[in-house]
Amino acid sequence: MARHKKGVDGYYRASIVIGRTESGGQRRKTVKAKTVRELDLRLAEVKEQYCRGIDFDASKTTVEQWAARWFNVYKAPTVGASTAANTRSLLNKHILPRIGSMPVSEVRQYHLQEIMNLQSGKSKSNTMKIQAVLKQMFDKAKQGGIILDSPAEFLEAPSTTTAPRSPLTNAERDAVVALCRSHRAGLWVLLMLMCGLRRGETVPITWEDIDFEAGLLTISKSAEFINNVAHIKETKTKSGVRTVPIPPPLLERLKQERAEAGGRLIFTPAKSSGMLTETNCKRLWGSFHRSLDIAMGAELYRNQIRKSSLRAGITPHALRHTYATDLFEMGIDLKTAQYLLGHSDIKTTANIYTHMRSEMLAATHKKFTEFYERGTRGEQNAHA
After folding, report:
1. Are residues 41 and 91 in the same domain?
2. Nearest-angstrom CA–CA distance, 207 and 94
3. What is the pLDDT of residue 364?
4. 159 located within any domain
5. At a CB cut-off of 8 Å and minimum separation 6, what does 252 contact?
């Protein structure tokens, strides 16, 4: 190591050997500082980095460059197309605009915490996904010797919101079933409500998947959307492959629809024999949701909804959650419910059942309280 005098720019400079070139010569790294003490500290830091295996050639790699490499090499090959597309979206929308031009080696924890803090009051699910991407990306940078320590460790999630996932109330269910009789999305909605299908599972379903004699529906595939187009894949998990009973009212509806159907797929876009696109699904649900809102008393002004009558959380997933609730209320055991819902982990089913049991006990407690309060008041009136 050779130290130099202060340069004309006011900095002290020194260099340190950090390896050998391909030809056998020394590879050196030069550092500079305003004071000799600071120079010594920086030289010691470089020496420590060299001993710990830091890749100095990659030290100026920007976050944007590393994100592209991480995504293509580590992320995209290990996940489905839908997850890959969502990860790319998180990078482009939330991460790269903030730190994309920074060298990876210069990113500090507070830079990433600022990204997290921007999610305050927003979706908890999306916030957790952003945190996961940051951790995975910087952990790989650490493993690859680009950085010594990951700045994504110990990030704190801000206060977020969680979309309610409660089942339909009796009034909401009655309104949904009534609307299904006339709305073009009716059969699609009923399959999610009465058979517990995920939205993606409804898209590739065919008439051959139905055993009309036995009244059974087999779910063996799903669809994911890539650039709006549906692509058939395996179900969300291996447990997603299942055969479920079709309630009699829905079976009759399916028989009627089958008699008029022209193709293999149960659901197709208008004037097309292909699968529904993501836009088709969103429009179907948007139209149904609007009609349901109006049917339940929304205030209209010039045919536009001025005041909604629906609570937040009425989504296609709420239909599936209602199906899970029905299984609980029918007394279907936990293991059977897990199979019918296509859950890979019985804990997922158990959490739903535990939640429903808690609600049932709370409602029972309320009825007991009201009953005995009425009895107490009656006794007091009798003595008055």
Report:
1. no
2. 42
3. 80
4. no
5. none
